[in-house]
Amino acid sequence: MPELPEMEAWRRQLNDPVSAFPIVKAGPGHIATLKTFDPPLSALEGRQLAGAERRAKRLLFPTDDGELVVLVHLMTAGRLKYLQFGEKGPKTPAFQLMFEGGSRLVLTEAGAKKRAGVWLLTPEEAEQELAHLGPEALGIGAERLKEICADESRRLHSMLRDQRVIAGIGRAWANEILHHAQLSPYELTRDVTPEQVERLAEAIDAELLRGLELRERGANDKRTYRVHNHLGEPCYVCGMSIARVDFEEHTIYYCPECQTGGRVLKDRRLSRLLR
Ligand SMILES: [Zn+2]
Question: Which of 96, 137, 163, 275 is the most buried (most CB within 10 A)?
Answer without folding.
Answer: 137
